[in-house]
Give the backbone structure.
Amino acid sequence: QVRIVESGGGLVQPGGSLRLSCAASGYIFSRYAMGWYRQAPGKQRKFVAGITSGGRTNYADSVEGRFTISRDNAKNTAYLQMNSLKSDDTADYYCNTIMEVVPGSRSWGQGTQVTVSS
């Protein structure tokens, strides 16, 4: 079974930075594209950033130029470096594979909270 554990969230002031970590297990990590998603209170979960097994990245327009996704296959871990944070970035952040490892069996971790406020 796929297991995802997100960490690194917290309270930061506008303009600050935060680095999130995503520790994965239960599948061959290096073969799958990974992505970060976020969900603000009362809203749907949205795609934030993705990275392929080959290292190509893509981002939502709202975070382009401010966030950087990366991965360390030796540690089965993906990261999200967040800079120039805004209040609109406040949300619960989740990590997952872009494609389901087992079709129809998508599972999500507990996520990690990011609050941007002065």
